[in-house]
């Protein structure tokens, strides 16, 4: 489903990723681990077509994802319907006047009629248990409430791949447990999960595979999640624990 070959990415002269090779199959649940600045968020942005490799290639379901490819509106819509991104900072993804319109935005972009849109929005409000936020202004919500709305927005398009950048940040313990169970349910229903995290406690049971980045901005381990988590020497060496 996702094939990344010899990818490099730099922000001006700042190397963020180097020599990245990665294959991800449909239905996997993957944790991206590694110290601050090692390249996890950059990889998620590349996978979502927000950034493009300076070198190497990224293929999604066999199609090379490039700026040119995504300038094709029809392809871009299809791509963004298939893969959703929950940003670390929810503020950057909320811009509508109220929560209803925020969640409706994606489905409307995809050309659904208002009856279908309303059903999608209500389903997502129910799933995230945020019905009472329906007519609130996203801007004025708390950090955790914003996060839930951002997740609802992504789920409103029913994507095949759900990517999350440190989703547990700023959530209270109950909401973390709720989100953990939601991610597990989504994965069980066949969704591919790719998620960066520094949090081990609240993600227990989500992941089957771990991809570990080093300070050198490359992948130093790609292994069964449990094996990585049980390898204390490795985790300390790489500043993960
Ligand atoms: N917009 C930017 N401009 C310049 N450099 C950037 C930018 N964003 C990230 N970087 C640099 O790219 C490298 C990788 O950053 P990235 O955000 O991908 O790390 P990360 O693994 O997500 O870290 P964290 O755990 O702190 O979220 C870092 O050296 C960072 O300073
Ligand atoms: Mg990051």
TrEMBL record:
Pfam families: ABC_tran (PF00005). Residues 2-240 form the ABC transporter domain. GO terms for cellular component: ATP-binding cassette (ABC) transporter complex. Its main location: membrane. It is an enzyme of class 3 (hydrolase). SUPFAM superfamilies: P-loop containing nucleoside triphosphate hydrolases. Keywords: ATP-binding, Cell membrane, Hydrolase, Membrane, Nucleotide-binding, Translocase, Transport. It is a peripheral membrane protein. It is found in: Cell membrane. InterPro entries: AAA+_ATPase, ABC_transporter-like_ATP-bd, ABC_transporter-like_CS, ABC_transpr_CbiO/EcfA_su, ECF_ABC_transporter_ATP-bd, P-loop_NTPase. This is Nickel import ATP-binding protein NikO.
């Amino acid at each position: 489903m996702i094939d990344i070959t010899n990818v490099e990415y730099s922000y001006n002269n700042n190397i963020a990723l180097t020599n990245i090779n990665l294959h991800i199959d449909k239905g996997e649940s993957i944790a991206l681990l590694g110290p601050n600045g090692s390249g996890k968020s950059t990889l998620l942005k590349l996978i979502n077509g927000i950034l493009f490799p300076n070198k190497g290639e990224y293929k999604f379901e066999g199609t090379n994802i490039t700026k040119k490819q995504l300038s094709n509106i029809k392809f871009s819509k299809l791509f963004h319907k298939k893969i959703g991104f929950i940003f670390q900072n929810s503020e950057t993804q909320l811009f509508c006047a109220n929560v209803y319109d925020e969640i409706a935005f994606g489905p409307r972009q995809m050309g659904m009629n208002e009856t279908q849109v309303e059903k999608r929005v209500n389903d997502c409000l129910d799933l995230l248990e945020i019905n009472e936020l329906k007519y609130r202004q996203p801007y004025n919500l708390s950090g955790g409430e914003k996060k839930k709305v951002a997740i609802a927005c992504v789920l409103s398009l029913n994507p095949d791949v759900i990517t999350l950048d440190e989703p547990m940040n700023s959530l209270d313990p109950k909401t973390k447990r709720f989100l953990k169970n939601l991610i597990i349910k989504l994965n069980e229903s066949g969704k591919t999960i790719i998620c960066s995290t520094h949090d081990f406690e609240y993600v227990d049971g989500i992941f089957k595979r771990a991809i570990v980045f080093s300070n050198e901005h490359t992948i130093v381990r790609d292994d069964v999640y449990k094996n990585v988590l049980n390898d204390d020497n490795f985790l300390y060496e790489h500043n993960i624990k």
